[in-house]
Design goal:
The chain is 36% helix and 28% strand. It is of the alpha+beta class.
């Protein structure tokens, strides 16, 4: 009898171990599963700025559900997920994690993320911040930083705060760094080659919206300025088909560049670009004279003062 009970106990232990193993992931792998009510068929863009995986990928949502995995053997890392509404969600990752996402397409800010302590803590904090006033937001963040000083969530938010205070690594009056871009037309552009003309860099992505209006504005501006302004369309999408479609439909005939790495793109990263659309205007010596994401507020006046008025006076 004792022998039979031992065998039964052994079987129960094995079953329990299998059950526990099924709840977690495999070391050397990261898995993300999810369910979104009201999001039947969609593609969610994902990318990592700190090497969880290389390049850009998509979460294919079918009937509200998705299941994605990749090799990952490190501890710590983040993935940014871009919703169809262009808002984003940060996921905190470790090797062996099974990150579970649950949300409603009508209330994406309330999306719940579980799978490790960081994601669960961040979910709670996000929900608190969503309901807080501007003054309460600062207090909630400071309280979280104090109680979670070593958390990757704290590190992420502090870097985010720093980025908000200092959006671009370059300031007005500074020169563009040396760079080399091979455009989609096959031309090679460097900082040196731009000397002699004002240059407008327009960083954009189809997933952010407003592309058509931006290109109409640039096309009109290039007609007004003739040869006194060069423009570089710097795309931040994830595949060539999107860029080709936009260029054809919007009649983009000026310099166009795309490497399909979103914010990991080398020059965009060096310039501190963290949102689109974003514009950088340089003078004839490649010195930055205006930069920002709001055309009317950040760029328009500099265009009028430095280029349009000059063009009018030389007629």
């Amino acid at each position: 009898m004792h022998h039979v009970l031992s065998i039964k106990n052994f079987i129960l232990i094995i079953i329990t171990l299998f059950a526990l193993a099924s709840c977690g992931g495999k070391k050397g792998e990261l898995r993300i599963t999810g369910n979104f009510k009201g999001l039947n068929n969609a593609e969610l863009i994902i990318y990592s700025r700190d090497g969880v995986f290389q390049g850009i990928d998509t979460l294919h949502v079918r009937e509200g559900e998705f299941d994605w995995s990749c090799p990952y053997s490190k501890e710590g890392g983040t993935i940014t997920m871009v919703y169809p509404t262009y808002s984003t969600l940060t996921l905190f990752c470790n090797s062996g994690d099974v990150i579970k996402i649950s949300g409603d397409a009508q209330q994406l800010s309330a999306t719940k993320v579980s799978g490790n302590e960081s994601n669960e803590a961040y979910t709670t904090l996000r929900q608190q911040l969503e309901q807080a006033t501007p003054l309460e937001v600062d207090s909630l963040k400071k309280a979280f930083y104090a109680s979670h000083p070593e958390s990757p969530v704290t590190q992420h938010l502090q870097l985010q705060d720093l980025a908000t205070q200092n959006h671009s690594s370059l300031k007005n009056g500074e020169y563009l760094p040396d760079f080399k871009l091979v455009t989609r037309q096959g031309d090679t552009i460097t900082a040196e080659s731009l000397r002699g003309r004002h240059t407008l860099f327009a960083f954009w992505a189809n997933w952010r919206g407003g592309t058509n209006a931006m290109n109409i504005r640039i096309r009109k501006l290039l007609r007004q300025t003739k040869d006194s302004l060069a423009c570089i369309s710097y795309n931040m999408d994830v595949n060539s088909m999107i860029v080709e479609h936009i260029e054809k439909s919007d009649s983009i005939t000026w310099h166009s560049y795309a490497d399909y790495k979103v914010f990991q793109s080398e020059l965009a990263s060096r310039l501190g670009i963290r949102e689109v659309p974003y514009y950088i205007l340089t003078d004839t010596a490649c010195k930055i004279i205006a930069a920002g994401g709001d055309w009317d507020k950040d760029i328009k006046q500099s265009i009028e003062n430095n280029i349009l008025q000059t063009s009018e006076s030389t007629k």
